[in-house]
Amino acid sequence: MGRQPCCDKLGVKKGPWTTEEDKKLINFILTNGQCCWRAVPKLAGLRRCGKSCRLRWTNYLRPDLKRGLLTEAEEQLVIDLHARLGNRWSKIASRLPGRTDNEIKNHWNTHIKKKLLKIGIDPVTHEPLNKQVSSQGSSSAAENLPPKASNDDVLNSDENSSTSPAENSSSYEDSILMDSICSDESIINSLWLDETLLNDALWDIAPNNADNINNKDMGLPTWEDNCAWLLECQDFGIHDFGINCFSEIELNALQQTIGVDKKGH
DNA sequence: AACCCCCTCAACCGCTTTGGT
DNA sequence: AACCAAAGCGGTTGAGGGGGT
């Protein structure tokens, strides 16, 4: 009794997306918005499963994505958040506008993890490695400490975002204090409620959303800016970006969608 | 030039969570 | 409350590229 596949495997294409497929998906989303991913492939004329379409859009095609490597500041923020949230990549990503969970997860596994190990910090616990070795040797109070970044502990200190990971590797007393805070569900709930509101504000940047202004306030690219990015690819030699598939009509449609004159930038 | 190895990251898989009935 | 479908999430995989020999 295997689990039912997420989609009809027959005739469903897998593997890397072609520019033609990207074009179809971008066209569809920009015209119709994000709705019912399961229906997207059919409506957009794609031989993909809805899940694959959603992933492609959120991780690669979405106009509000930043491109390129994470900056030093972003990297530090990821480390800081990881110390408190653990492997909750989507939560971490929600604090880094324009970055995806997949991107951050990959960057963590390929870069940050190694960096931390190099400077002698355990990427899982965020404790100094030698400290861990010494504490493992004895069955002292250290063993009774709650695991630092386990999924449940994550709730502990979230939102205390002014604290650095170093400050976070606190004393036993601090752990006890944290535990007492964590055991108070009302506090935790209100903390997470705050975060939810923040997240919504960050990502709710559909074309018609008035909250769009928020991103500008934060110095972040707006939906328009990023749609403009797609258009500017044409200016710089869109072929180099692998998006050589927009017809003039489609580019016009894009411009209409974002409602800006790119010459205004 | 040819081969091998390692690294990166896009994409997939399957489990969990959420929302609707 | 129970069930189901859809969406979300995190772990894992594998193709492709770059560097070393």
TrEMBL record:
Keywords noted in UniProt: DNA-binding, Nucleus, Repeat, Transcription, Transcription regulation
UniProt domain Myb-like: residue ranges: 9-61, 62-112
Region feature Disordered, mapped onto this chain: 128-171
Domain HTH myb-type: 9-61, 62-116
Composition-biased stretches (Polar residues): 131-142
Amino acid composition bias (Low complexity), ranges on this chain: 159-171
Name of the protein described by the UniProt record: Uncharacterized protein
Pfam families in alphabetical order: Myb_DNA-binding
Cellular compartments per GO CC: nucleus
Chief localisation class: nucleus
GO biological process, one term: carboxylic acid biosynthetic process
InterPro entries: Homeodomain-like_sf, Myb_dom, Myb_TF_plants, SANT/Myb
Location in the cell: Nucleus
Organism, as annotated: Lupinus angustifolius
Signal sequence residues: none
Protein origin, superkingdom: Eukaryota
GO MF terms, alphabetically ordered: transcription cis-regulatory region binding
Keyword check for Transcription regulation: yes
